[in-house]
Amino acid sequence: MSRSSHRPRVLYVTDLAYEARGRRYCDEDIFLTSRLRASFDLALCHPLDAAGLMAAFDLVVVRNSGPVLGYQEAYEAFRARALEAGTRVYNPLCGRADMAGKQYLLELTEAGYPVIPTVDRPEDLDRLPAAPGYVAKPKLGADSIGLRRVAPADLPELPYSDGLLVQPHIDFRYEVSFYFVDGDLQYALYAPDPARRWELRPYEVTDADREFARSFIDWNTLPYGIQRVDACRTRDGELLLVELEDLNPYLSLDLLDEATREAFVTAMADSVRAAATAD
Q1: What is the Cα–Cα distance from 149 to 154, expressed in whole angstroms?
Q2: In tens digits, what is the pLDDT along the chain, a chain of 279 residues?
Q3: Which of 44, 97, 134, 235 is the most exposed place for a label (fewest CB within 10 A)?
Q4: What is the pTM of this model?
Q5: Cα 269–78–120 angle (5° rounding)?
């Protein structure tokens, strides 16, 4: 049977029991799968079961599966088996950003992108701007796991060999996230209060904002999929990249108006269909 002669079979990977701070991942995936079933033969599974089930499907969609740190060995096994078998995965496994750890923050810093300056060696500390405090976080971190504040005097003593990144602590006005399907910006949300990261409101995107966010999508070169560009607005008005999430970004769909949410679902369904049926 050819790919074009049946409804695409989609394995939707999610951990419905994962508890995230300030968000209900399960609600988002229940909503999305309820809508995607109109277009696909769809089954849900836990991330620990994906490797054993994926051969029966045209596409594996990795969504709100939680940080892979909790099951790193199983995730690496899934990646290896999917790559070896040529399994289609959404997002594709060639992502250069959070999918591969936070090394990309060093690469973007070195390349001169508008990103929070980042180093991973004590001999490079002089490349960071002077600041009252700094942030240290693991290259394989997620959901702020392992993140800590560091005083300037303590920077030379950090265990850099453990895979740490160091950045200046930014006194920003707000955080803003840009949500893309394939290469198209769908919507943006921001957190007016820096202390309440997940209390988000709709954000009006300017041409400069769009160009900023799109530059990171272009850098990542994913052929398809969902990405979230997280940034902060400094006191000087500059946008700086905080994170480029290309593995399983939470989408905050419950905060959107109906028209925007419906447009996103349509864009995602079209993208998933194209990925599942491509020759």
Answers
A1: 10
A2: 344 458 999 999 999 988 877 678 899 999 999 999 999 999 999 999 999 999 999 999 999 887 777 788 899 999 999 999 999 999 999 999 999 889 999 999 999 999 999 999 999 999 999 999 999 988 876 555 668 899 999 999 898 888 899 999 999 999 999 999 999 999 999 999 988 888 999 999 999 999 999 999 999 999 999 999 999 999 999 999 999 999 999 999 999 999 999 999 999 999 999 999 997
A3: 235
A4: 0.93
A5: 95
- Please state the length of the chain: 279
- Centroid of chain to Cα 249: 4
Tokens of 226: 């969902």
CB atoms within 10 A of CB 267: 16
- The angle subtended at Cα 127 by Cα 169 and Cα 96, nearest 5°, is 75
Cα(250)–Cα(137) distance, integer angstroms:
20
89-90 and 59-62 strand pairing: parallel
Return the HEC string of 37-83. CCCCEEEEECHHHHHHHHHHCCEEEECCCCCHHHHHHHHHHHHHHHH
- Quote the CA–CA distance of 244 and 105 in Å, as a whole number: 9
Could you tell me if 250 and 20 are in contact, meaning their C-beta atoms sit under 8 angstroms apart? yes
The 3-state secondary structure of 111-144, one letter per residue: CCCCECCCECCHHHHHHCCCCCCEEEEECCCCCC
CB distance 191 to 23 below 8 Å = no
d(CA 139, CA 100): 9
Of 102, 61, 95, 68, give the one whose Cα is nearest residue 220.
95
